[in-house]
Design brief:
The complex is a heterodimer of chains A (227) and B (226).
Chain A: H1 9-45, H2 51-66, H3 69-79, H4 89-114, H5 118-126, H6 131-161, H7 173-185, H8 197-226
Chain B: H1 10-14, H2 16-49, H3 55-67, H4 71-81, H5 91-116, H6 120-128, H7 133-171, H8 176-187, H9 190-219
The chains are: A mainly alpha (227), B mainly alpha (226).
Chain lengths: 227, 226
């Protein structure tokens, strides 16, 4: 591919992109979709009057925001099987990320929904919408404008935190880099007998930067446009 | 339905000295990192807000690099890649240093925003009274802007504490999370250990945010100063 690079680079890069990056993006996509759906529903429900439901959701939000994401992932991957629930490692990771992410989204949604003036509620009610219809068709679509910056920031955070699944043995981008680093260090014919950690982890950092930087800029731009 | 799993909690007491040591280590690396990142945040945040040439641009690069790369990649870089150029850090140092580097970048942004929110008339009043730029910063911008930066810092500092759970297993430093794996190997009580681990972190994180909120309330500006 790139002739000026040392010969060990090509197969390593191919493996890291085709296997590692693919899994990173897959986990991030599942986690973000789950966070957005669950978070927006819970966040909207946080604005209702009936306090027992609000209290239950509040407990959910505070627990998953308070726990380190890695501990949540360990709980799902190592502790749930003792209760008979066994999940694939990548899925356990995605669910752990989604629990944390949905708590973040719920908090942001609550604020966004509460920022919609009460006249909007009244107008929708006057047109015959019930609570659900009012929120699905009138309130939440208006709140979504305010929800965009935190959702983009969440995407960045989730993409970066997919690396945590390395600790439960999932071969995402950083893990494939780690495997290749260890293989290369072995004497020939398995590896090249040289340490290439600096180059490989440097490359992993650059890939994450290239993905994240435009997204953090976008989040900042959306934030500025709101004011 | 009956659970086939038989819960046993006695291992917690049997391992209490190990757990307490691990708890202390979590607190130690987190508090060093939090203090360090507050200093980094105040100094470099002030440099950013005052637009001091070169320092301000270098700080911007530092902040963007840290904010846009995963902390686990940063830890790997510090602990596994730096030895290649002759920099080998012991596990303890690598642990608090990588936490501090991460927290510092986020603190810079918190404090920069805080300092920039101080009305410029205040600074001008300080300068007009004959204070030097440094004195004006220490007596005017820092007390007001620092308070404005506190709420955002709660999030950053509790994230530093939570990130210690990543650093421990990554560099094999025996803080709470890494130690829980050692206890797991010895006892096999998977569910109980991770349950207890979760409770430990919730108590730590919630106490830390309560503490900072308390500090915030104590430090609240009198209404007329706003």
């Amino acid at each position: 591919m790139l002739a000026f690079l040392p010969s060990w680079v090509d197969p390593v890069a191919e493996y890291m992109f085709k296997e590692g990056l693919k899994l990173t993006l897959q986990i991030a996509a599942v986690a973000v979709a789950g966070s957005a759906v669950v978070g927006i529903v819970l966040g909207t429900l946080l604005t209702i009057r009936w306090w027992p439901l609000r209290a239950v959701i509040r407990v959910y939000v505070e627990i998953w925001r308070g726990l380190p994401i890695i501990v949540t992932i360990f709980l799902i991957f190592f502790a749930l099987p003792t209760l008979g629930i066994k999940l694939d490692a990548w899925l356990a990771g995605a669910i752990g990320l989604a629990l944390w992410g949905s708590a973040q989204v719920a908090e942001a949604t609550r604020g966004a929904v509460q920022s919609i003036p009460s006249e909007q509620h009244e107008a929708a009610a006057a047109l015959g919408f019930g609570w659900a219809g009012r929120h699905v068709f009138v309130i939440v679509p208006q709140a979504s404008r305010r929800l965009m910056p935190p959702l983009v920031s969440l995407l960045v955070n989730v993409i970066q935190n997919t690396t945590l699944v390395l600790l439960i043995g999932v071969g995402e981008l950083l893990a494939t880099g780690q495997r290749e680093t260890e293989t290369l260090q072995a004497p020939p014919p398995i590896g090249v007998g040289d340490a290439h950690a600096l180059a490989i982890y440097g490359a992993v950092a650059i890939v994450f930067f290239v993905i994240s930087f435009p997204l953090t800029r976008l989040a900042a731009y959306l934030e500025r446009r709101l004011v | 339905m009956t659970l086939a799993y038989d819960f046993q909690w006695s291992f917690i007491w049997e391992n209490h000295s190990l757990l307490l040591q691990a708890l202390w280590r979590t607190l130690e690396i987190s508090l060093i990192a939090i203090a360090g990142s507050a200093v980094i945040g105040i100094v470099l945040g002030a440099a950013r807000a005052a637009r001091i040439p070169v320092v301000s641009q270098l700080t911007a690069v530092y902040v963007e690099v840290i904010r846009n790369t995963p902390i686990l990649v940063q830890i790997f870089f510090i602990f596994f890649a730096l030895p290649e150029i002759g920099i080998t850090l012991p596990q303890f140092t690598a642990a608090w240093f990588s936490l501090m580097l991460w927290g510092g970048a986020f603190s810079v942004e918190n404090f920069r925003a805080g300092f920039e929110a101080v009305p410029h008339e205040y600074r001008e009043a300080g300068l007009a009274l004959g204070f030097s730029r440094l004195r004006t910063f220490i007596h005017v911008t820092l007390p007001i802007g620092g308070r404005i930066a506190l709420p955002a810092s709660i999030n950053t500092f509790s994230s530093v504490l939570k990130n210690s759970a990543i650093v421990g297993p990554a560099v094999a430093y025996g803080e709470l999370t890494h130690t829980s794996f050692r206890i797991l190997e010895a006892t096999g009580r998977t569910f109980e250990i991770f349950f207890v681990l979760g409770v430990f972190y919730l108590v730590l994180v919630w106490s830390l945010s309560a503490l900072i909120r308390l500090l915030e309330a104590r430090l609240a500006l009198p209404e007329e100063a706003r």
